[in-house]
User: Fold these one by one.
Assistant:
Number 1:
Amino acid sequence: MKGTLPAHVGIIMDGNGRWAKMRGLPRIEGHRCGEESIMEAVRVCSERGIKALSLFAFSTENWERPEEEVSFLVNMSREVLRKRLEEFMSLGIRLRHLGRRDRIPDKILAWFDLAARVTAGNKGLNLNINFNYGGRREILDAGLRAAQAVKEGRLDSREISDFRLRDFLYAPDLPDMDLLIRTAGERRISNFMLWHMADAEILITPVLWPDFRREHLEAAFEEYGRRKEVAESDYGSLRR
Ligand code: IPE
Ligand code: IPE
Ligand code: MG
């Protein structure tokens, strides 16, 4: 397959609840079946040499869900890490948790930390698990940390630009998001990576997350490549 590939892909993995409901199953079954979609996305991005993949797994708003569902999702994140760490290693994946640490139980954080530590030296796909993540909160946290740096004399306030503020984000080395995919047809951003998606192409698919497989992601990449090609031919000559 030809065409420009996105460097950083973000996915709002939505529709697990609807997928389960359609089958008369409890919502958590939708989350459980979404794991295979996660692994497929990770494998495809690895194979294609994508630099970064950010998966929205749990938002700061998702704590409002019923206790049983919250506890399933929290524990599932640990189970996925426990079960898949070996495969992540063999794919050369560098895994990181993006989000607030507060409210996440210590035993779950320990797994996020372990996975990050073990994979830190890997040179393949940067896999970000956005858990207890809010886009506004990330920007606010960056602002607070920059203010602290000014107070401690490590940063001159006259030097703060969007370029410098990036240094205070959760993962400063992460490139801008080129392609944002949302499954299950919803046309919302839902407080995902607001800073990174400033210039992202948005692709919304009706496919529910547990049904989102290799072919859907490949199709998304093709669509991205087509859009870039059009942008190049329409405006490319003007830019030069
Ligand atoms: C996405 O699926 C998973 C999370 C938000 C954790 P949903 O659980 O939001 O599924 P729907 O939107 O109810 O179908
Ligand atoms: C966004 O999905 C968050 C995640 C995918 C983790 P939601 O289903 O929680 O978002 P809303 O409620 O539709 O905005
Ligand atoms: Mg939803």
Number 2:
Amino acid sequence: MKTILTGLRANSVFTIGNYLGALLPMVRLANKHVNDCHLNLFVPDLHSMISEIDGGDLQSNILRSIKCYLAAGMPTGKNVHIYRQSRVPAHSELCWILNCIATMGEMNRMTQYKEKSEGKNSVNVGIFDYPVLMAGDILLYSAEYVPVGEDQFQHIELTRNLAMRFNNRYGDIFTIPASTKEQVKFMGLEEGIRIRDLLNPEKKMSKSTVAENSKIMLDDTPERAAKKIMSATTDSLGKIKFDMWGQPGISNLMVIESLVNDIPLQEVIGKWSGETKYGELKKQVAASVSKLLTDFQVRINEISDDQVYELLESGERYANEVANTKLLEVQKAVGLR
Ligand code: TYM
């Protein structure tokens, strides 16, 4: 059985970018493949430490993340595995071995590292190295499909390169994840998802952006989210056209409308292209997002802590079994065992 795997850092409440870019694609694939694939949705809690976090909040963030997974519609059952990265020590061990395969040159090219370290006097090594830990997260479970937002595509390509390099040196140990082009196709998309900042649509929507109106959080009230959409930056061209370079604000709204309602983007573009009333499109998107948040918030409140801990118990048992088996293969291949 193939494995589909993803994880979302548990630093704070998720944005709608996290939700639409990674969680919803995972949930939709999981519901489609619940009988024919392993579905690993984990909390990369070690990755949370690359940003300064309040240790006291981490446990509650982890719990809330998993409730978000379930409230987003993640199925449960024998092929679904929900776990915390730090409860599976093999992740850290494989990370070290892969560190000795990765080169400074390729790591220096990682856009996320460049963006996250820009303008800072001092940058922690974790920010530089986290794509290698991520590669280990994927390779331990032989995952072929990894639904992530477009900002993580370079890390999927890095994972493929590390796996191929390792296999060339030490034998056929790792399954090579699908290329990002194949990943996009598997998700039923035309291109990778990058939800834009509502105020600066040239930029990615990010939870670390300070301006509250630039992002929609999953715990925003539906009214607040609607207001944020109504005040989103667009352009002065006066005619709706899907053009991420020329009209990123309005194009971003069409992408959101398509993903929230699971309608092909081309259909949304067909409906709105040529229209001149930006306010009408904004109202439509605001209604779609409000409904999404209303439903999501009802569901998340119905999930108990006990339900989460029960899932973690079986998920972590499974994860340790699979990860330790792969790690032992790796250790034998490199001569550590
Ligand atoms: P993280 O926690 O920064 O983001 C979680 C997921 O949300 C996606 N995302 C977006 N997608 C579209 N538009 C946006 N504006 C947007 N913002 C965030 C991200 O692409 C990501 O898929 N290193 C990863 C977490 C990770 C992981 C893994 C993922 C660790 N190990 C193994 C997959 C497989 C990260 O920091 O994502």
Number 3:
Amino acid sequence: MKYKRNILITGGAGFIGSHVVRLFVNKYPEYRIVNLDKLTYAGNLANLKDVESAPNYEFVKADICDFETVCGIFQKYGIDGVIHLAAESHVDRSIKDPFTFAKTNVLGTLSMLQAARHCWSGDWEGKRFYHISTDEVYGALELTRPEGVPSDISAHMVYGDEFFRETTRYSPHSPYSASKASSDHFVRAFHDTYGMPTIVTNCSNNYGPYQFPEKLIPLFINNIRHRRPLPVYGRGENVRDWLYVEDHARAIDLIFHEGKVADTYNIGGFNEWKNIDLIKVIIKTTDRLLGNPEGYSDGLITFVTDRAGHDLRYAIDATKLHRELGWSPSLQFEEGIDKTVRWYLDNQEWMDNITSGAYERYYEDMYGNR
Ligand code: NAD
Ligand code: TYD
């Protein structure tokens, strides 16, 4: 069958990538979707069980750093569009092992760009290289409204007067965000130097099904289920801006098709939460769904040493994406959290498979007996 487009999605077996692959495979039967993933500890083909036998879906196990193999994939499938998500994505790991982050996120992205440049050989017609990045490249914002007051931007809590905009200067603080910032610069450089049709988007914290349980929300749901301590870094005063992962995937679809070449879009939900308040919502929701009495798991909260260089506040201004392409988040946070907790509780086998082997050892390594 001749496909209308042949799209390479990297990191498709990970958290966000699996939602993007699922959306594209189901929505565009006329496209061939090639998922390139190394299957690191964070990559899991069980995330894609429902689409694995779709006729327009192909999985290739490969490393983005392996230029020759990536070139071979471009040629074999006639790739004309790339959605690049493969990365090392956890800040705490980057603090322990920054070298792996530089290798995968910087050199891996460069290898993807070089492969696209080599295989497209200057014929940019109908081509697109879309790089998925994070708001963490912008650094950290102040907390100028510590109690959180509803502003006129939305009914949600807003903890400061400043937001990350597309024009905000890059100022990464963690090895993770430094590596993502560097990869963003390489992508833009390939547009400016060679004319490659690139797009970069920077998104806030995602939550939802299939997230590896090293990140706050799935880690805490799983710990509540096992009555393990909930390690809150510092005093839990840090603020994050949360977006449901399927809303991110919808934005990626829209921007891949309609975004302006060489442009940047910020993606976020205007949905800021102090960690400690979010944690209380997670506890309350999980206890309710497990049938525990209210307050049952409150005592699991354990304040621990703060993360080194812990960014105080992230908050995205996503008005450009709304104004230019009409995107806005579809889900209210209360609904999103409810759906998310239910999913992890209903899919305990998925969680148990992940946490049984490598992750269990990693958990001990990171947190000792906490
Ligand atoms: P994830 O850690 O869940 O998944 C990463 C995927 O990349 C895994 O499937 C892994 O196997 C694969 N991978 C890692 N190294 C690879 C390599 N060398 N070659 C091929 N595949 C490799 O990450 P995620 O949370 O889904 O994030 C995906 C992307 O979105 C990342 O680029 C991340 O920086 C960005 N992002 C994430 C968030 C978030 O809240 N999770 C927010 C904004 C942006
Ligand atoms: P995380 O999910 O790791 O995302 P990111 O660091 O990319 O924002 O963490 C979200 C917030 O929760 C962050 O402020 C760190 C905090 N946190 C804890 O307090 N305890 C934990 O065990 C984890 C994993 C995170």
